[in-house]
UniProtKB/TrEMBL annotation:
Cited CDD domains: HAD_MDP-1_like
UniProt-listed Pfam families: Acid_PPase
GO molecular function, one term: acid phosphatase activity
Protein name: Magnesium-dependent phosphatase-1
Length: 189
């Protein structure tokens, strides 16, 4: 399937959701491309997973921002590859550095750089420890098996809107509780 076909299908998938993330964050190695970039040379011509480019273009088309959170120790190689692939300028934030935390510091930086609340973010990564850590911060986090593809996109957007509904429901519950018992703290004392 060519990039244009993938983009068209991705646009259809995205179009079916009423609630969408404001920012989609991608890991690099084994999420956007099928290798560890630290094992490659800058002189090589890299390639992305087959669905990656179409998905990036579709998200961008829908006005959704894109960012990168990678623990790669070779940011220079990663950035050269993104440039060679013609996608570097698509990302509003590129946090690429090795770290002892499981990307929580990457997300803090993405949040302060973009101002997007973490619960308005959708994240794709191939490592479960990153998924666990980042979902605790409030981002909808999806474990990918063989890189990003249309199935993972569909799953991500479904989970995102489910999480969003839960947040909204809880907000309503609190508002209702508060408006019914505006003096509840007085009653306790
Ligand atoms: Mg990875």
């Amino acid at each position: 399937m060519g990039d244009e076909r993938v983009k068209a299908e991705a646009l259809q998938i995205i179009g079916a959701f009423q609630v969408l993330p404001r920012l989609v964050v991608f890991d690099l190695d084994y999420t956007l491309w099928p290798f560890y970039c630290e094992c490659r040379s800058k002189r090589e011509m890299p390639s992305l997973y087959p669905h990656a480019k179409g998905i990036l273009y579709a998200l961008k088309d829908k006005g959704i921002d894109l960012a990168i959170a990678s623990r790669s120790p070779t940011a220079d190689i990663a950035k050269t590859f993104l440039d060679k692939l013609g996608v570097k300028s698509m990302f509003v934030a590129q946090e690429i550095f090795s770290s002892w935390t499981h990307k929580t510091d990457h997300f803090q930086r993405i949040h302060s750089r973009t101002g997007v609340p973490i619960n308005s973010m959708l994240f794709f990564d191939d490592e479960n420890r990153n998924i666990q850590a980042v979902s605790k911060m409030g981002a909808t986090s999806i474990l990918v098996d063989k890189g990003i593809n249309l199935t993972a996109l569909q799953e991500g957007l479904t989970r995102f809107s489910e999480n969003w509904k839960t947040i909204e429901k809880n907000k309503q519950k609190w508002l209702k509780k508060f408006s019914q018992n505006p003096n509840s703290s007085d009653q306790i004392t």
